Write the structure tokens for this entry.
Amino acid sequence: MIELKNAAFSYGGRDILIDMDLRLAPGSFHFLTGPSGSGKTTLMKLCYKALQPTSGLMRIFEQDVRAMGRDDVARIRRRIGVVHQDCQFLDHLNLAENVTLPLKVSERDDEIDDSHLMDLLGWVGLAEHRDAMPAELSGGERQRAALARAVIMSPDLIIADEPTGNVDWDMAQRLLALLVELNKMGKTILLATHDLNLIRAAKQQVSTRVLRIQDHRVVLAGADL
């Protein structure tokens, strides 16, 4: 699904990530850890082709990123749902409109079925807020809305960048439960977090691997977390 071989990314003459050898298999659940500024967000951007390695090989869904044209990038992004750390929404659209926006942008308006939308909003516990505006949502509600938006197109891979960073522990566990459920449905999960307790909680529910960015390299963390 995602494969890097001897890949690196540099910016402004500075190495951000080097010597990356990594494979995210279909249906796997990977945590990504490391100190702030270590390159976690950079790695995630590489995985959904917002950035491209400056050297080495990278394949997304078996396709070499160097050979991808604009249509190829659009096609692979339909298979990837991204939950950004800042959870940005369009303030003039209500919750339902923001969640279904990826379908509209992809010209798949015909797939916006109200019963399916309500099922999805119910799944994340937001059915009663479908007409709420972004400013009316709490931090936890915005995070759950961002997850609903990320999965509206039924992606194969969900990438979440610190989705529990601004919520309390109870909400963090709720968000984790949703991601675990997606993984049990066969979705591949890549989740960046600083929270070791969250990783420990996940390990009790599903098979996971923990990647750590250390000295610009992505390494497999030990089993002692």
User: Anything to note?
Assistant: The mean pLDDT is 91. Residues 89-153 form one domain.
